[in-house]
Amino acid sequence: MRQIIEERTGSFSRSPQLVEAPAANLRVAAHTTVLHEGDPARRIMEVVEGAVMLTKLLPDGRRQVVELLGPGDVFGLAHDEAYACSAETLTPSVISTHERSALERDPVLAARLLRRFEAQLCVMHSHALVLGRMSALERVAFFLLRLMPEGMVGGATLHLSMTRQEIADFLGLTLETVSRAFSELKRRGLVALLRADEVRIQDRGSMRRLAGAA
């Protein structure tokens, strides 16, 4: 099994990128693959800190980023006893793991994880709408607004933990199209491109109208 996490004498094996944290949580470095699509599904995982992306490989080798996860989100869904997606950390993260059999023994845990999965499913419905109905410019605007902290008023400076290629894979676009969309948002005065991984929202109202969120 290619997972970074493996069972050995009832504990987790260590690697240079993976160190156990207190309370049975796992501290994982950025850009570490935690689960591989198709591997035997033994655990369900929760993001305690950090950010994780779920990906699937298409038959022609292209990759689709299917979900972005933050603290409180859950991953490790299975199809025919195998993981349905790969999972990779975008930032240094702390991840809590649960044996799948624990869900049968602990109804409170099972109910809590089910509520999280339900909330994430609603977010994925919104993502499907983005991919199916929005233009490239609208998709990038929607993506940036999604990164804004809740309750934020006015402008905001966003740190992008994803590369332009990863953003393209998430939005169903090419790298070139994403780059053009960022440039167009800058030309319109809606954003300021401070660095490759840092964007400031200059006109939140116009961004929301562009993304259909006004």
TrEMBL record:
Domain Cyclic nucleotide-binding: residue ranges: 33-76
Domain HTH crp-type: 134-205
Transmembrane segments: none
Keywords: DNA-binding, Transcription, Transcription regulation
GO cellular component, one term: cytosol
Record GO terms (molecular function): DNA binding; DNA-binding transcription factor activity
Protein name: Helix-turn-helix domain-containing protein
